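call fold target=DNA-directed RNA polymerase I subunit RPA12
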Amino acid sequence: KWDFSSEVVKVNFCPECGSLLDLPNHIGNVECKLCGYVCSTKEIRAPEILTKSKTRVVQSGRLKKEAALDHRAKVQQLCEKCGNEEMYYSCAQLRSADEGQTTFFECTNCGDRTSINN
């Protein structure tokens, strides 16, 4: 039966050839399958692992959406809901090619949305 205590199972590499060492056998020895190096589990030193990371600012979904809104096209159009005179707009061809496009408006103040079929 394998003993998986932290003293026995340590990820390590063969000091002779650099390949990954297998788990210890039934008598507590570790053998490299590539070059044949053998040692006791007591001789294996756990490798020191050093990690580094940088802090980065992650925008929430709401902030990303607000940032995207700043780049949309604007037009002087009266909002029927709040009376604001500036709206975002975009156009799309939703109907057949021989018909006009649909223009979408969104108030820059209250967010009310309307559309016009041209």
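return ok
Residues 1-9 have pLDDT under 50 and may be disordered. The first strand starts at residue 29 and ends at 31.
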